[in-house]
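Tokens as discussed.
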């Protein structure tokens, strides 16, 4: 089977969050299972772009509104990612350093999707399936079926659309409908949701199958989906939840190139102690204390706004006894509040504003606990990385966090779950971690060994996707 993945991110070419990790791993595991998987993303001006060798595979032109644009498609030569990676370049639109955050993002991604459809239409043979990811590619299933320039050849190709985060739907005004390629006006209603053109809603309506990144998140979308709740309830028969996996070759404490001290299940106690000592040395923390880490975007969706008050309260409750380390960026007010904690709580709190891949790996290896108090977490990858590194997750029971972390109070449990995104629930969870794990010698080591044995690789998820693909062939 030949599968084409269309997305806005793909690690290591371009990554803003978990979407990039998924697109950088799932196709690789599909290739390992004997299929042909290709990925096409915009040609952002990232470091990865300039480090690889590329070949030009296609050039053509299209329109966005009345504006004529030229586009080109290049392919990475070495196949170093384990699958074919293609980049679409459109001068003036996609040639940016950042992935998102520009005033013309709507135009940028409409042009990208237009170019992708035009390019695939030109193939001498057609792929067996096109798999689109999140709203940045949500118009592709519609254009394949109803775009005048594409439907003759593309309408019979099955399409799958995966919702990685429904909080962002890419909606824009009908006044901008001129940006769309020419399409059948009889089906314009498929573009609409509450009086706007909504790419996410369009994909849910028109894709042959819809998936979300966990079963728990699929259920939650009928109650909380940024205004699309009724749509997800209506389309539930063609929807399914497939839990994300992780690339266990990249996330492997035994061989991770970012770590100075490697370890396995058999050497986890020593390995984590060495990495923790290195991590604490960098941030002036006491390695003898339990270390709680948070890695992620500093936004309300991750409940990062609760962290300043929760951390201050926890340190006050356990003075000179626990430490916190935070890595991430986002809303400036949250960044400032966290940064302001480092002076009065010196020795107990470390903060790194921004993102550093090497530091994140060291934190997974050196932390005792990974804190994830998210208000919304479709799947969550941080808890899976943490488990792989023998770090115990403390999570709110939401979305994929609820699907992957069993509270230690339940049978077979190994982590800590709490119900509400509140300072009080976070404090209680931290108290439990200190009491149940850290204050009982040998208890923490036992659970570290247990969680490192859990298989959250992409192998299982890749098989589920392939079963889904085959069901619509």
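Sequence:
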């Amino acid at each position: 089977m030949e599968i084409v993945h269309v997305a806005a991110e793909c690690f290591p070419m371009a990554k803003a969050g978990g979407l990039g990790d998924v697109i950088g791993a799932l196709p690789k595991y599909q290739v390992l299972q004997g299929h042909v998987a290709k990925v096409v993303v915009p040609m952002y001006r990232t470091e990865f772009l300039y480090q690889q060798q590329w070949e030009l595979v296609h050039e053509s032109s299209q329109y966005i509104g009345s504006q004529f644009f030229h586009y080109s498609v290049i392919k990475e030569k070495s196949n170093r990612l384990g699958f074919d990676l293609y980049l679409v370049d459109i001068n003036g639109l996609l040639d940016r350093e950042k992935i998102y955050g520009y005033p013309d993002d709507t135009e940028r991604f409409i042009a990208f999707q237009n170019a992708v459809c035009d390019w695939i239409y030109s193939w001498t043979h057609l792929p067996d399936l096109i798999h689109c990811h999140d709203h940045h590619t949500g118009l592709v299933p519609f254009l394949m079926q109803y775009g005048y320039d594409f439907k003759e050849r593309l309408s019979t190709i099955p399409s799958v659309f995966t919702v990685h985060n429904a909080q962002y739907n890419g909606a824009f005004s009908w006044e901008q409908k001129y940006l769309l390629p020419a399409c059948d006006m009889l089906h314009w209603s498929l573009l609409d949701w509450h009086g706007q053109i909504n790419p996410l809603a369009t994909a849910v309506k028109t894709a042959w199958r819809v998936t979300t990144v966990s079963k728990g998140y699929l259920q939650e979308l009928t109650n909380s989906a940024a205004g699309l709740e009724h749509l997800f309830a209506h389309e539930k028969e063609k929807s399914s939840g497939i839990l994300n996996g992780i690339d266990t070759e990249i996330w492997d404490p035994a061989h991770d190139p970012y770590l100075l001290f490697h370890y396995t299940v058999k050497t986890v106690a020593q390995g984590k102690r060495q990495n923790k000592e290195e991590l604490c040395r960098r941030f002036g923390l006491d390695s003898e204390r339990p270390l709680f880490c948070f890695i992620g975007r500093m936004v309300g969706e991750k409940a990062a706004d609760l962290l300043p008050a929760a951390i201050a309260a926890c340190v006050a409750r356990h003075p000179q006894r626990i430490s916190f380390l935070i890595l991430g960026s986002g809303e400036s007010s949250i960044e400032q509040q966290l940064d302001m904690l480092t002076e009065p709580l010196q020795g107990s709190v470390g903060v790194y504003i921004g993102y550093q891949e090497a530091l994140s790996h060291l934190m997974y290896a050196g932390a005792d606990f990974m804190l994830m108090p998210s208000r919304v977490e479709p799947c969550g990858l941080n808890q899976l990385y943490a488990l792989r590194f023998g770090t115990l997750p403390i999570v709110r029971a939401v979305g994929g966090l609820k699907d992957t972390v069993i509270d230690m109070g339940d049978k077979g449990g190994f982590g800590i779950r709490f119900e509400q995104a509140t300072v009080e629930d976070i404090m209680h969870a931290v108290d439990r971690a200190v009491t149940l794990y850290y204050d009982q010698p040998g208890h923490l080591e036992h659970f570290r060994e247990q969680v490192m044995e859990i298989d959250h690789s992409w192998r299982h998820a890749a098989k589920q996707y392939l079963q889904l693909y085959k069901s619509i062939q």
